[in-house]
Design brief:
Elements (H helix, E strand, L loop, with lengths): L2 H20 L14 H18 L1 H4 L3 H12 L5 H9 L8 H22 L7 E4 L10 E9 L5 E9 L7 E8 L2 E2 H35 L1
Antiparallel strand pairs: 1-2, 2-3, 3-4, 4-5
Length: 217
């Protein structure tokens, strides 16, 4: 896939993924120990959509507020290290701890800035969570849902893992919007950068992109 086509695809998916982020923003500090993954997604979706609809700053794309929400509400419900490692691919294991930290930091900024503009598009949407097909003992599940309220329903799926220990609940490690998985989409893009410039080159590319996005905001 050429760079221009990938950019267009990511742009389209990013707008829809704002609705995915809206299903995470207002997570409670700790989910009930016996809460299933689909119940968690359904609960968070309802809470978050109501908050975004009433928060004019988020609707206007206030980046500082989006960043604060991500740090305090989204990250506790996402295995972001696993998400970043999967997006980077095999090169992650060869990266130093410092490189891994920088990759996580820059990847988070990239996603936050992507969501900040798209969050303003959330209006009278609702998320319908489909019945969960999983056994009680499963530690990794797929939760399928649809975002309704626009011209066409938007497919929105989550991959979640059960965290070890009592009461820690589920964590999201991948999102699928319109048939496109976030991690796999970025993995193909990151792989070309790593092959050409190495891990430090990928970090530099992400920094440059984030700086460019910051000037536009």
């Amino acid at each position: 896939m050429n760079r221009r086509l990938l950019g267009l695809l990511l742009g389209r998916v990013a707008a829809s993924m704002a609705l995915a982020s809206s299903a995470l923003v207002l997570a409670l500090p700790a989910a009930a120990a016996d809460e299933t993954a689909d119940v968690m997604i359904k609960r968070l979706s309802g809470e978050v959509l109501e908050t975004i609809k009433s928060d004019k700053a988020i609707q206007a794309g206030d980046l500082s507020k989006v960043v604060a929400l991500v740090d305090s509400k989204i990250m506790p419900n996402v295995n972001f290290q696993r998400m970043t490692a999967s997006a980077v691919g095999p090169a992650w294991r060869k990266a130093t701890p410092e490189q891994q930290k920088r990759l996580q930091d820059e990847f988070k900024i990239l996603l936050v800035r992507t969501y900040s503009g798209a969050l303003a598009q959330v209006s009278d949407h609702q998320i319908v969570v489909k019945p969960l097909r999983a056994a009680p003992e499963d530690t990794e599940v797929l939760v399928r849902s649809e975002v309704r309220g626009g011209p066409d329903p938007i497919q929105l799926d989550y991959r979640l893992e059960k965290t070890p220990g009592e009461g820690l609940g589920w964590k999201i490690y991948n999102l699928n919007v319109l048939g496109v998985w976030l991690v796999e989409t970025y993995r193909s893009q990151f792989a070309s950068e790593i092959n050409a410039k190495g891990i430090d080159g990928l970090i530099a590319t992400l920094q440059t992109r984030n700086q460019s996005n910051a000037k536009k905001s």
